[in-house]
Amino acid sequence: MKTAYAFKDLNKTAQNKAIRQAILDYNETNASWGDEMNGGFVPPKTRDKRTLEEFRNDLLNSKEINLYTSDGKLIYAQDGVFNENVDIPKGGFKFPNLSYKDSKSDKQYQVKIDSNGNAVIKFGRTGKTLREMKKSFANDYEAIEYAYGKYQEKIKGGYTAGAKFDSKRRASKRNRGENKSEFRIMKGKPLNNKTAERFRPQMDKKTKQMKEPKDMVDNYWISEKVDGFRAIWTGKEFRSKQGNVFNAPPSWLARMPKDIQLDGELWLGRGNFEEGSSIIRKKNWDSVEDQEREWDRLTYVIFDSPSINKNDVGFTNTVEALNDILRGIDVGKTSEPKEIMGYETIDNSYGSVEQFNYRPYLVQVGKEFSTREEAEAYIENDDSYMDFEYPGDVGKKTMIEPDVIIVNANTEFGMNDPKPYRVFAEVSVEPDKPLLKRKVNSNIIVAPQIELEDIDEVNELRDLVVKQNGEGLMMRKKNSPFEPTNEAGTKRSSSLFKVKPRFTDEGLVVGYEEGLGQREGAVGSLIVKSTIKDGSKATWKLASGLTQADIANPPEKNTVVEYSFDGKTKRGIPRHGVFVRRRPDLDPRAYARRQSVVRKFNGQPYSLFQRTGKANNLNKNNAQTVAKRIRSMGLNARVVPFQRNNRPVYSVYVGRRKY
Fold first, then answer.
1. Which of 80, 273, 377, 532 could disulfide-pair with 572, CB 3.0 to 4.6 Å?
2. What's the pTM?
3. 2-168 CATH choice from 3.90.1150.10, 3.10.560.10, 2.40.50.140, 2.20.140.10
């Protein structure tokens, strides 16, 4: 039985043979070809001036079903005609076996046409018995067309043929279809050692004197980087960055401000990205009540508004305008209160300032008044509130300033009070430091902003936020406009910085994934195995950080690599991993096995090593002898190698009982 190949799956030599055969076939069926001119073949009648490369590209892009042997001979064309010169049983051939491997799957897929003209498909997990599906057709042409269609479907889904790659990278969502979004988000640069230099004094190379920093931290607002799901409010609906509409419940659509664009994230709280994402992306709900209940757990955190922040408005004025807008709408009350970094909101007898959408640190002073005139008369007497101090642990000093407003509580708070008029004044605060656990009770908020003085304070605060299960910080220049990214999504604004920690770890290379675009036919990602939370191993893909040299000569399978990342999923998979370097100094066998957990024997932690005082650093023979003794007692034992002072040493780990 011969193996069938599409033209693009042939090597270059076989492709050239297939092209020349196609030219000969044209010569026999149409007209004699003229002399070869500049690498092109010029038939007298059609004057086809394609070069061999152009001919090859046409065949690569052809949607017709044409199958070839490995040496470039045509087996089958879409018109249903078999090549009689190829030694192949009628209706009997198979396609190359396909495989797919990623962090969750290791699968096989096989397609063939049997001697009876049936399309036979086998599929399942690698190493397991494959399931088989057989389908009959009226003729061989239909069978081949069906089988080839299934083969191409899997190729497009990331399956690969041959041993070089374990899978093929799928096109990103942005590239799978048309980007339906008319709105482009604003992207920030990472604050790393290089970009942070702009905030530090620099040595003048000529004068050898220290110069002022190029930029000052107090020119920026600092906010927490929430790990939510990016959502653009168009004025009518929520959309993703790619323009896909989120299925928001009616109460949310009614609550949001109309005819204004907002950029923000739908957020379920620190460390809950995956659960929040599942709520937001879910399309089919059992009932509207279920949908409302789940969405009411979320909070929409607004970052900016391209509708407002344009021309010379600036980010500071935009934040104030957004808070004023929220003051006039029902922001809802989340069923799952959250914590966020920001200055404390001061509670009064009618609820928190945030809940009623006022600017921070508004607090009621004095008594209630039946008419507005009485409230204004109270304001005219400065002594009635000038020295009022509000008790609270907000910062170094908490006092009332003479900047006051009059509020009709019946209108603003929905009350029914015969004395509805109240006086509110701003509280002046000089905080020691922002609070890490500011309460969030609303479904809609503007991201709280704070001020810091130097970059070291920023890094210290970042670490404190991360310890509270936060993702990091954002720095936004106070007078900056909204700067959308370009169509490709690669442009990043120099007025917005992401302040996130980076961690490093090692993992074992167990496979390769073929890339897309410029990496077509080359390594696009390394498939890496590393330890996750429960001590077991999991595989995932590492693509960022690979240089052209790494792509041309990737780390060999079963070797150790070092990578950096900025966090982990709940399962323990690294997020935003970046390849750092190869680690030939580390023994791959130590990374290939599950980290054994010390088991108990007769109620006590059991390890013959620990009990004899020879727990580690044995030679291989001694370790195997100890392991054999442990197995004879009905327990499993493994000999695990390690590196110590550049020499291999061995330890025994005790596993479950054998029986």
1. 532
2. 0.58
3. 2.20.140.10
